[in-house]
Amino acid sequence: MLYSKIEGSGKPLLILHGFLGMSDNWKTLGIQFAADFQVHILDLRNHGRSLHSEEFSYEIMVQDVFEYCQTHNLENINIIGHSMGGKVAMLFATTYPELVDKLIVADIGPKFYPQHHQDILAGLNAVDFSIKPSRNEVEEIMAKYIPDFGTRQFLMKNLYWQEPGQLAFRFNLAVFNTNMDEIGVPLPENLIFEKPTLFIRGGNSNYILDSDFENIKHHFPTATVETIPNAGHWLHAENPVVFYQTVSSFLKIQ
Question: Does 1 score more than 90 pLDDT?
Fold first, then answer.
């Protein structure tokens, strides 16, 4: 079963994090949304505190979310997904449209994305936890491969004390090493979700291009696309005020 943090009451709102993320990344926004909704912030399979397994695909992650909804008796839900979580949300909504009221997808499209996490994976794999490095030593190793400070800090949130003196990553790096191509696969061509859908892109990000609008409309005929200024791919962290306002306005439309 998936680990989750549940806040508030009312209509269910599921939040799905991106690749190498976890529910903690959405803690602040989750509390804000909980003023109006029962918010479920999930750790997806092989991430955070959820189960680790050899299986890793969008289909299996969608099944996990479906089983989570069944267990918690959730229906007529709103769902937010960022990046990889956005792909999960798209596939979930098109597979189980009867369960979803509104869909919000943050900075990812339904198209194919080529592999582009090579440097990040190299940095993560360079860390040898058998020598019991400190947090500072882990960051120094990763910095040789991942020069961007913000990206390193995002990844460092996955560090935890497995036991006294022994750090580890919460995500299942071994499975990601062998299944990386799964992250970029497109939404199957025949899948369509006709209910209200909002795509949000970062103004400084290249994940959703103007040329992608036609493909988005093919799968999501009612979709609108909003652009958040002064934000890249992690738009919810880089401009959380505008992100919250944009999502709230969409969810409150009858």
Answer: no
The count of other CB atoms within 10 Å of the CB of residue 166 is 12
pLDDT in tens, 141-154: 999 999 999 899 99
Distance CA 1, CA 20 (A): 19
Shortest CA distance to 77 belongs to which of 103, 59, 95, 53?
103
d(CA 96, CA 27) in angstroms, rounded, equals: 26
- Reduce the secondary structure of 147-188 to three states and give it as a string: CCHHHHHHHHCCEEEEECCEEEECCCHHHHHHHHHHHHCCCC
Q: How far apart, in whole angstroms, are the C-alpha atoms of residue 91 and residue 73?
A: 20
pTM for this entry? 0.96
The region that residue 13 occupies, defined by phi over 0 for left and psi between -120 and 50 for alpha, beta otherwise, is beta
Here the tokens at position 201 are 């892109």
How many angstroms separate the Cα of 228 from the Cα of each of 18, 113, 140? 18, 21, 32
**What is the strand order of the sheet 38-42 is part of?**
4-7, 38-42, 12-16, 77-82, 100-106, 197-202, 224-228
The residue among 248, 171, 169, 235 whose CA lies nearest residue 200 is 235
